[in-house]
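Postdoc handover notes: sequence design on the structure in folder B. Input tokens:
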């Protein structure tokens, strides 16, 4: 989502690159990271792509103190002075270490477009901002896109043969609307699911590829998508409908 926001004075930390971009092919996941440093403090900027997901997770791993306040709140992503994207970020403490993980979602195409930008500014509303130089990011982000294509091909779908991807019919958010309170027990959770869309646009299979740790939420994710999802099917370069896949990282959260 792109929004126009008035500029406000915030504390700014400007980081410098402390190493190269690293592309990591993981199971059902592509992870691109780079270390940065500022005033002796080290952070890692990363882009986590689940193949087939129209969004990319942005992650920032940094040092943290055990008594630091963890929060959920707004995050501004500024790839250039004229554009601001608003997302909702979650701060998590890494178990067993004094590290904090800030994570939020951004459009996949918007992240791939960062390769043409000189720097990226990320601001946690009410907390401060960080600026990262993006030199040589174009090649690294192309590697992220290649990883996604390779993994999807390993699932039996060749994107090179696809002229247009499948398009959801209706509001995707309504597919997953069901009473959360009994399942949540005051805990947030993330479930990553992958489903198959047949040439008629129907969902024929769904698999949980990363669990939220809550079996009720995991089961509900696939149950809801098989029950409610409907698509205009993907079209092949031969002009015929073809099977495709889609992946989503679902963030379960109760609103206060």
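Designed sequence:
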């Amino acid at each position: 989502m792109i929004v126009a926001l008035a500029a406000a004075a915030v504390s700014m930390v400007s980081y410098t690159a402390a190493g190269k971009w690293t592309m990591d092919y993981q199971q059902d996941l592509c992870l691109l990271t780079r270390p940065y440093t500022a005033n002796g403090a080290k952070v890692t900027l990363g882009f986590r792509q689940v193949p087939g997901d129209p969004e990319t997770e942005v992650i920032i791993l940094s040092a943290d103190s055990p008594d630091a306040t963890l929060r959920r709140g707004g995050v501004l992503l500024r790839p250039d002075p004229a554009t601001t994207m608003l997302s909702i970020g979650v701060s998590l403490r890494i178990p067993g270490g004094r590290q904090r993980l800030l994570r939020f979602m951004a459009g996949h195409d918007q992240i791939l477009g960062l390769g043409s930008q000189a720097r990226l500014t990320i601001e946690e509303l009410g907390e401060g901002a960080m600026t990262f130089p993006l030199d040589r990011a174009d090649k690294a982000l192309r590697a992220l896109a290649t990883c996604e294509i390779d993994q999807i091909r390993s699932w039996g779908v060749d994107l090179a043969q696809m002229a247009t991807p499948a398009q959801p019919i209706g509001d995707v958010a309504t597919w997953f609307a069901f009473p959360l309170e009994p399942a949540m027990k005051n805990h947030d959770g993330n479930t990553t699911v992958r489903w198959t869309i047949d040439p008629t646009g129907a969902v024929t299979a769904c698999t949980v590829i990363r669990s939220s740790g809550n079996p009720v939420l995991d089961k509900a994710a696939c149950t809801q998508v098989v029950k409610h999802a409907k698509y205009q099917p993907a079209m092949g370069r031969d002009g015929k409908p073809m099977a495709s896949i889609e992946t989503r990282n679902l963030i379960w959260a109760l609103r206060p």
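Context for whoever picks this up: The CA atoms of residues 19 and 107 lie 26 Å apart. Don't rerun without checking with the PI first.
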